[in-house]
From TrEMBL:
It holds the Pfam family Glyoxalase. InterPro entries: Anthracycline_SecMetBiosynth, Glyas_Bleomycin-R_OHBP_Dase, Glyas_Fos-R_dOase_dom, VOC_core. PANTHER family: CONSERVED PROTEIN, GLYOXALASE-RELATED. SUPFAM superfamilies: Glyoxalase/Bleomycin resistance protein/Dihydroxybiphenyl dioxygenase. This is VOC family protein. Residues 12-126, 140-255 form the VOC domain. The lineage of its organism: Bacteria, Bacillati, Actinomycetota, Actinomycetes, Kitasatosporales.
């Protein structure tokens, strides 16, 4: 049984969850790729599991209802002290709220929303979050970023809803902004022009750490996933964008220093 930890500052990415077309197949894929083990969830929330490493929760996996034509996707959840109030702000600022807010057990309240560019994310008003593995450990999420045609499309939205300070990357020609809370980077937004990856629109992408990138990419291919990009170098390690057999996009990064997961954003790419 995992211990609960204090609630994070509102706006901080605090959890990631996969909405899968085939939950059992997703368990097999991510279990092999990351070494995750799984616990079954409560039935009233539909088929879902918690993934864990060494007994600590690392991600959630749920199954998309057969009558819903949603694509499989990873969603980062952003912390909030009041899911209903934040949902109202999202609507007021040009976003949408597609699910909830609703109670999810143990005093938690959640919602699934989309920003002003259509990128989906979750809200989590948690009584207390489960203890999670140290950031930077292989198999854990280490960074989240929004992919949009132009970063300025969403910076005002997130500043208004979550109070982010916005820092623009000026060291290169990249259209990259980092969202900060109390001087600490928490997530980023990348403008890519018309080159949106994964043949989808604007979206959030979660980066997971791996011990070695090349074997991890071979494993993705072997397990029925797809490698979308050649490995690229960054100051924080080599990374590549991939998707699972359901088509859910994510990224893998072989971090040079796991401390980068909490001390510096993975942005200079």
């Amino acid at each position: 049984m995992t211990e609960a930890v204090a609630r994070p500052v509102p706006g901080t990415p605090c959890w990631v969850s996969l909405m899968a077309c085939d939950l059992r197949a997703s368990e097999e894929f991510y279990g092999e790729l990351f070494g995750w083990r799984f616990r079954r969830g409560e039935d009233e929330l539909g088929p879902h599991v918690r993934a864990y490493l060494d007994g600590l929760d690392v991600a959630g996996l749920g199954e998309i209802r057969k009558d819903h034509a949603f694509p499989a996707a990873w969603l980062p959840y952003l912390a909030t002290d009041d899911a209903d109030e934040t949902s109202g702000l999202i609507r007021d600022c040009g976003g949408t709220v597609g699910v909830g807010p609703m109670d999810s057990g143990q005093g938690d309240r959640v919602a699934i929303a989309a920003d002003s560019a259509g990128a989906s994310f979750g809200l989590w008003q948690a009584a207390a979050l489960p203890e999670q593995p140290a950031a930077g450990r292989p198999g854990t999420p280490v960074w989240n970023e929004i992919i949009v045609p132009e970063a300025m499309m969403v910076t005002s939205f997130y500043r208004a809803v979550f109070g982010y300070e916005v820092e623009r990357l000026t060291a290169s020609q990249s259209d990259y902004h980092t969202f900060m809370l109390a001087g600490r980077p928490v997530c980023g937004v990348r403008g890519v022009g018309g080159a949106l990856p994964f043949d989808r629109g604007s979206m959030w992408v979660t980066y997971f750490a791996v011990s070695e990138l090349a074997p991890a990419l071979r494993m993705v291919d072997k397990l029925g996933g797809r490698v979308y990009s050649e490995p690229r170098e960054s100051p924080y390690g080599s990374y590549a964008r991939v998707c699972d057999p359901d088509g859910a996009p994510f990224a893998l990064i072989e971090m040079l220093d796991p401390r980068d997961a909490v001390e510096r954003p993975l942005r200079d790419r």
